[in-house]
Amino acid sequence: MNQKAVLCSEKDQSSEAAMLLWVSKTLSTMIKVPVAMFVLILLAMAVPLQHSFGSTTKTLDFSIYPDGSTHIFLELDADPLQPDFQVNLFSNSIENLIVQDENGNLLSAQIDGSFIDIETFGASKISISYDTHELVSKTGKVWSFTTGTTDDFSVSLPKNSVIVGMNTYPLEMIEEPNRTTMLLPAGYTEIDYFFTTVDSSLQSDQTISSVEGNTPIIFGIGGAIAAIIAVVIVLKSRKNSGRIEVKQETGTTKQFDLESVQKIKPDLRDDDKDILAFLQSNGGKAFESELRKKFLQPKTTMWRAIRRLERQEIIEVTKKDMQNLIKLRDDLEAENE
Amino acid sequence: MNKILLPLLVLLIFSMGIVSNVEQSSGTQNLENLIIIAKNAQTHIKSDLDKIENTSPQILVLYGDSTSEFEKLASSVEQSDVSSAREHFISVMTKLKQISYYLAKLESEKLQQEELPDQIYMIQKFETNVGKIKTISINLNVDVGVSELESLLSLAKSNYANGDPDKAEQTLEQLAIKGIQAYEILNEINKQNQIIRAKMFVEKYMPQINNLISIAKNQQLKQTVEKLEQSKLQLVSANNTQQIKNNMKLVLVLKDQIETDDPGSLTSQKIMLESKLQNLNQKAVLLSNEPSEKKAVDYWLKRTFSLIDYTESLIDRGALQSAHKQVEQIEIILINVEKLIYSST
């Protein structure tokens, strides 16, 4: 109240009062700018995430082997207040069933036809993996994958296979060398494919070229933004340039040491440790696709592991040749010191 | 301060615009994926068709149709018309599928023999399973001979690399036996852990059970109090997970009963579910009598009947909450089946 009176007294009351009020509003808004910026940053970050993975927490991956068997990985939320949980499986005949809770503990399960009753006893997340031969049939050289789902799902086709029939459309597609993984919408799905000895490089070339068509503009604008941000950061960081010099020095001299990392982060998961050990033996970096191949994990599982390690600031993820390049951070120890 | 923050704010709004642009271009990329898949399929089908001397005119017409549909697909993608692109994509792929099945019939047995999958994929499959056993054994802190499994796996790989598939198969058979043994040990140890977990779950729930008993006493629900007391005793003395599960389920049912303040609600809920299920079963039977050539209709109806059977068993077991969820799922599936039949006629 007092502040408003002081501001108004400096100018003529009548005509510019509104303007002054507007200015005073702007000033108060400017104070809130950091909050607004924070919200905007969150929004900007949320948009691509929602786009890529949707809001559902469920994961459903089908991985088809060349012999016609399918590995199914399903991850879903369970009610921690219930003693058990029922799931409808995709087949009556299953092999290699493993049910685990969020901590990797094995859960007991009873199979009743194509249904499974899992003793959860407080588990809030369940992951189910199993193999089945019932989803793929063969006519001559044409293999046909058939399923029906109530959620969007991903399918990885066998290497060197060519899709020759589909009753649905892919929402997203990932091209790995000689292998196709698609994100498909919920519903009844039929995919027909056959194996080919013909070099399927045609696929990869086209994927890259079609992406290249869009990338110069995106990367041009992205580059400009990055440059502006870099300038702002450099200007801001001039004030404490001394500290940065020290950090750069430690960053270049320290080497990644898995044992030290385990000491700093004792709660690291075993599978994450395996990833780090592989990265270390691979010169400190590897493509995400290489990691998936090495650990034979579904796309989403590996994605989560990478994000987990990135959150813990043990690795960094950059883009190279349109792929995610995972690098061990060699400044982890220095930062913790 | 303001001089830095204002441009940053503008920059952020601008970058949000970029994000949506990237999304759009990613959408375009997804549409281009349709072209990639269709083009690739067409190229391979064409190459197979060219190998045949007397192709049926019907198939040639079908191929021509697929080409014209492909052109429509390409033009839809160019115009970023998502729904039209998807429609033409499915049309192209359906036609190409028909041709590929025609071609498959002409394939010789010899060719099929040649295209049997490589043994390396079997090895990879085993590698996944050994990896799983390893993770679980580390989790349970038990040595089940994972190193032996790993060395057998390496041996199978080297057998394969040395061009000795018979030896590789023998090694894989050995690996399978050892793997099953290891998994059985893990399962046995896990059963002990599962009982501990179940008892912890009961312990966590005990204050709520006591609370339920006192509420039931206040509401003068004599029978419910008795049942709860009995379940509580059984839960405390239970030494297997099945016993704990069954008693916990009973407690949850009684909890629902107390909360709805209607002792007869359980019976009425059961009757309601049974009648709903009966109606859904009738509807499914009627739909299965409708003429439809769609495989999807058969698939979903088969699934519906299996769901109905399962839901009946849930109702019999008193798992009404789970039965209710299944009934909802059946309703959704039958609505979709109706749509499928309607669209096909």
Mean pLDDT of chain B: 83
> How far apart are the termini of chain B?
68 Å
Task: Label the overall shape of chain B.
Answer: extended
Strand tally of chain A, please?
17
Number of DSSP strands of chain B?
0
Largest sheet of chain B: none
CATH topology of the largest domain in chain A: Immunoglobulin-like
The number of distinct helices of chain B, counting runs of at least 4 residues, comes to 12
What percent of residues of chain B adopt helix (DSSP H or I)? over 70%
Terminal CA distance of chain A reads 49 Å
Q: In percent terms, what proportion of residues of chain B is strand?
A: under 5%
The H/E string of chain A reads: HHEEEEEEEEEEEEEEHHHHEHHEEH
Just name the CATH architecture of the largest domain in chain A. Sandwich
* C-alpha-based Rg of chain B, rounded: 31 Å
Structural account:
The complex is a heterodimer of chains A (337) and B (345). Chain A has helices at 2-10, 14-53, 201-237, 241-253, 258-264, 270-281, 288-295, 299-311, 332-336, and strands spanning 59-64, 70-77, 84-88, 95-101, 109-112, 115-119, 125-132, 136-139, 142-149, 153-156, 161-166, 172-176, 179-184, 187-195, 285-287, 315-320, 323-328. Chain A has 337 residues and is an alpha+beta fold. Chain A has four domains: 2-46, no CATH class; 59-198, Immunoglobulin-like, CATH 2.60.40; 201-246; 254-337, Orthogonal Bundle (Arc Repressor Mutant, subunit A), CATH 1.10.10.10. In chain A, strands 4-7-2-1-10-13-12 form a seven-stranded mixed beta sheet, covered by helices on one side. In chain A, strands 8-9-14-11 form a four-stranded antiparallel beta sheet, with no helix packed on it. Chain A is globular, with a radius of gyration of 27 Å. Chain A starts with a helix and ends with a helix. Helix content of chain B is 88%, strand content 0%. Chain B has twelve helices and no strands. In chain B, helix 5 packs antiparallel against helix 6 and helix 7 (165-218) runs antiparallel to helix 8 (222-237). The chains are: A alpha+beta (337), B mainly alpha (345). At the A-B interface, helix 2, strand 3, strand 4, strand 9 and strand 11 of A face helix 1, helix 3, helix 5, helix 7 and helix 9 of B.
